[in-house]
Design brief:
With 172 residues, the chain is mostly helical. It is 65% helix and 0% strand. It is elongated.
Length: 172
Amino acid sequence: MKKNVPLPIEEINRMNAIAYELMVVNALIRANKLKRVDRRLQVIKLMLEGKRIEQIAEKLDYSRFWVSQLEKEYREKGLVEYARHKYGGNNRSLSEAEETEILRDFEARSDAGDIVRVTDIKKAFDEKIGKDTGRGYIYMLLARHDYRKVMPRPRHPKKASDEVIEASKKLT
């Protein structure tokens, strides 16, 4: 008959620490709303559950190298820094007040009945910041300030000509 050998206190403490960290990771996963952070937390959850790198990589569709890099980052930085969302930010050239100041001039012109073009706004914006920007940036600027209004085209490019329309009316 086999005797029950008690576990050393260090092993019990290690198991308790893993169980506590797994509980914290699960709470972070439930509270998280960002897909990228969620997948990173899933790596740690599976690691704490005792899965191997190959199993984690296959389950989450990551490469084994990337899983090992994520585990290394977790061990070096800890859970709080690992779970923090580090991506995104304000990549604007001007503050919101400066953007509003530029747009205010064009708003006054449009209220007076003038047609305001994106190219004009782009020129003013480029002069203010001192470098050339893309049109897409200006469209995002306008959308950010709720000014974007796309003018509809006058007619559909595939619309039949007036002669074809009249001919089809005569057939029916």
